[in-house]
UniProtKB/TrEMBL annotation:
Any Pfam family the entry gives: Asparaginase_2
Protein name: N(4)-(Beta-N-acetylglucosaminyl)-L-asparaginase
GO cellular component, one term: lysosome
SUPFAM superfamilies: N-terminal nucleophile aminohydrolases (Ntn hydrolases)
Active site (UniProt): T233 (nucleophile)
Annotated stretches, region: Disordered: 1-43, 302-343
Site (Cleavage): D232, T233
PANTHER family membership: L-ASPARAGINASE, N(4)-(BETA-N-ACETYLGLUCOSAMINYL)-L-ASPARAGINASE
Length: 343
């Protein structure tokens, strides 16, 4: 497991304390007696997993500024929701590791679309957007869904129209980088992709595809698709000094996804979850699998000692561990941050 805070306050700050662990860094902040809140966030690029059927390289990269932005928001008197929004928005603007914000992860048609969610652990209110098109500030639109509608999730072109009505600018999310990624993918016969049981053979050719007359159930392996591109995004958890907890996510999804695909990031309980009475959690992984297990909500249902929390984190991944490996970050109301890997 590797959990590390990004861009923490200087070591002299009374609000941040880092503890080195065997395989990485686990932030274990303590706010007892402090006069300001704490922020931690978790961002991944790739994950190493060895389970017999695939082998993937690990890389954790800093995306400078998002935690600092969130912390400064809190220090200026902002709420936990404000901090989550500002932190995720900073990551969107900086295009963190190419998996967040505009100009990354083009879909099959070459378009970059965005997913985001923000959740208030006090009210249990959620605002989310999926398959958001031509709007850069996805987390900001998600906040507007939370504040100005009774819905949880808006998606696609309708979400874009909603964003425009809220004052967001409609602009192209493509860049030279995303266009080059798409061109290279097309030159490689659209490999990898997320189709199966179609003609022409999706493992060899580009589409358009259609279903065969007789369905052959041989499927595809996650080694070829999701496990190659399935770990990215930003998940942020904030604990305010008042005890309010909030969580948020933002991502541009997986590269070369089928247009219209929405991942786990905007789904409460899958991408992230927050409850003041229990804590908050966020994760990254194969979103199409994560949505089937809602592991972030399950993870938070266990209480007790720190060791018990870690064990609960492990148990929450048991049902999905056969399918993929998911890093998790979990914050408790007593301001302890724990982590576990679902291996």
């Amino acid at each position: 497991m590797v959990f590390s805070p990004r861009d923490p306050e200087p070591a002299s700050s009374p609000w941040v304390r880092n503890t080195e662990r065997t395989q990485g860094r686990v932030a274990s902040p303590s706010l007892r007696g402090a006069s300001a809140p704490d922020v931690t966030n978790h961002i991944h690029e790739d994950i190493t997993t060895r389970s017999g059927i695939y082998n993937q390289r690990t890389s954790y990269k800093n995306c400078s500024g998002e935690t600092t932005a969130a912390w400064k928001t809190l220090a200026a008197g902002g709420s936990a929701l404000d901090a989550v929004e500002s932190g995720c928005a900073t990551c969107e603007q900086q295009q963190c590791d190419g998996s967040v914000g505009f100009g990354g992860s083009p879909d099959e048609s070459g378009e970059t679309t965005l997913d985001a969610m923000i959740m208030d652990g006090t009210t249990m209110n959620v605002g989310a957007v999926g398959d958001l098109r031509r709007i850069k500030n996805a987390i900001g639109v998600a906040r507007k869904v939370l504040e100005h509608t009774t819905h949880t999730l808006l998606a696609g072109e309708a979400a874009t129209k909603f964003a425009e009505s809220m004052g967001f600018i409609n602009e192209d999310l493509s860049t030279n980088v995303s266009q080059a990624l798409h061109s290279d993918w097309r030159a490689r016969n659209c490999q990898p992709n997320y189709w199966k049981n179609v003609i022409p053979d999706s493992s060899k050719y580009c589409g358009p595809y259609k279903p065969p007359t007789v369905l052959k159930r041989d499927g595809i392996t996650y080694e070829d698709t999701a496990q190659s591109y399935g770990h990215d995004t930003i998940g942020m958890v904030v604990i305010h000094k008042t005890g309010n907890i909030a969580a948020g996510t933002s991502t541009n999804g997986i590269k070369f996804k089928i247009p219209g695909r929405i991942g786990d990031s905007p789904i409460p309980g899958s991408g992230a979850y927050a409850d003041d009475m229990v804590g908050a959690a966020a994760a990254t992984g194969d979103g199409d699998i994560l949505m089937r297990f809602v592991p972030r909500r399950i993870q938070l249902m266990g209480k007790g000692s720190k060791g018990g929390q870690l064990e609960t984190s492990r148990r929450s991944g048991d049902s999905s561990a056969d399918w993929f490996t998911t890093p998790k970050v979990k914050a408790e109301p007593d301001n302890q941050l724990t982590g576990a890997n679902s291996i």
